[in-house]
Amino acid sequence: MTQKFEPLQNDLIIRTAWGQKVERTPMWVMRQAGRYLPEYHQAKGKLDFFQTCRDPEVASTLTLQPIDRYAGIVDAAIIFSDILVIPQALGMTVEMVDKKGPHFPHPLTSPDDDQYKQVLSKNVDVAVELDYVYKAITLTRHKLKGRVPLFGFCGAPWTLLCYMVEGGGSKIFKEVKTWIYKYPQATKDLLQKIAEVCVEYLALQVQAGAQVFDSWAGELSPSSFNEFSQPYLAYIAKHLPTRLEELKLEPVPMVVFAKGAWYALDALCDMGYQVIGLDWLQDPAEAVKIRGTRPIVFQGNADPGILYGSRESITKLVKNMVAGFGGGKQGWIANLGHGITPFVNPDDLKFFFEELHRFTT
Ligand SMILES: Cc1c2[nH]c(c1CCC(=O)O)Cc1[nH]c(c(CCC(=O)O)c1C)Cc1[nH]c(c(CCC(=O)O)c1C)Cc1[nH]c(c(C)c1CCC(=O)O)C2
């Protein structure tokens, strides 16, 4: 069934992502729907995290919370979900443990593990397995009434692999390093499988834009990045547009956020993504130099910790960031350099946005 949605009233971020000159810098923040908002806790109640993702009514409510709170200020919504729904669709169990983060009770242990073979051979029908995400997207689009575009997203193959073998977050990445350095081919087979599911998953999500999060890219050396992350990010960038064409959908701008992969910025500029997310350890002016004349748009990159600082510090950072990205009328989407953290005062985020408006209009 073809869905009818109200026309987009604010397409600033889309025009910017396609490289056009714009009247001011578009802005949103990663994890803008989340724990720093009191209304998030209220709407979530006692629901478990993944229950909220699977309930289209709740997921759409959470997606819209920052859009309502920062109405007329923020320029994009991102669907409330998680990167770990792909391992779930591949047949793995993932829980969200309060105050600890994601936990896989049975991570993949080695290529001889039966579970590894099952994951690799599973024929994943993402339209069925992840239909709750599509329902949440459709409902959210109706509720948005065209106010701002809605971004879809997925985890990058490398980052998903980290979770699937580590079983959660990690400090020393013992398991994933064992996989890449002991079983490189089995690792690549799995990364390829994940990349294929990512393409289909994004294609069916696609509304306005698609963001690929490679949150653990910074754990790789440059040569390991070239071997275990880059080819799969490139696979997604190459095959998503083809798949969208097959589905008779319009192309959408694609965003890659490879956290910590500063060494790869030059290569990322040639990977087929329109937008590259930068974390806060990268200097905007340096990044602009590396980009050169390539028609790439940057997204980022304020230290998320700025939102614990004083108003004066926020103003100073915004001023510097705007200057670093060249004024902000082209080639830049303002954001934090990673997701917003808990305990931020939502009024301080509002101030950050307002200062961005003031310095970039
Ligand atoms: C690595 C990663 C994950 N999830 C995601 C990433 C990539 C981005 C990044 O690097 O931050 C992506 C993500 N997770 C969530 C969103 C929703 C949309 C949005 O940005 O507003 C998005 C885009 C909701 C969430 N995902 C999660 C929460 C917090 C859940 C809660 O405790 O209520 C939210 C709102 C949980 C989650 N999910 C994940 C972790 C590590 C955690 C725990 C983090 C923490 O405790 O701060 C995996």
Explain the overall architecture.
Helices cover 47% and strands 11% of the residues. It is α/β, with parallel strands linked by helices and 361 residues long. It has a domain at 22-265: TIM Barrel (Alpha-Beta Barrel), CATH 3.20.20. The strands form two sheets. The protein has a seven-stranded parallel beta sheet with strand order 1-4-5-6-7-8-9. The protein is globular, with a radius of gyration of 19 Å.
Structural class computed from helices and strand pairing = alpha/beta
Provide the CATH topology of the domain at 22-265.
TIM Barrel
Q: Please identify the top-level CATH class of the domain at 22-265.
A: Alpha Beta
Give the strand tally.
9
Report the sheet-strand fraction. 5-15%
Shape: globular
Percent helix among the residues? 40-55%
Short description:
The protein is of the alpha/beta class and 361 residues long. It has a domain of 244 residues: TIM Barrel, CATH 3.20.20.210.
Any chance you could write out the topology, listing elements then pairs?
Elements: H1 12-17, H2 38-44, H3 49-54, H4 56-69, E1 77-78, H5 85-89, E2 95-97, E3 101-103, H6 114-121, H7 126-129, H8 131-144, E4 150-155, H9 157-166, H10 174-182, H11 184-205, E5 209-214, H12 222-228, H13 230-246, E6 254-258, H14 265-268, E7 275-277, H15 284-291, E8 297-302, H16 311-324, E9 332-336, H17 346-360
Parallel strand pairs: 1-4, 4-5, 5-6, 6-7, 7-8, 8-9
Antiparallel strand pairs: 2-3
Coproporphyrinogen III binds next to strand 3.
Which characteristics define this entry?
single chain; 361 residues; alpha/beta; TIM Barrel; seven-stranded parallel beta sheet; two-stranded antiparallel sheet; 9 strands; 11% strand; binds coproporphyrinogen III
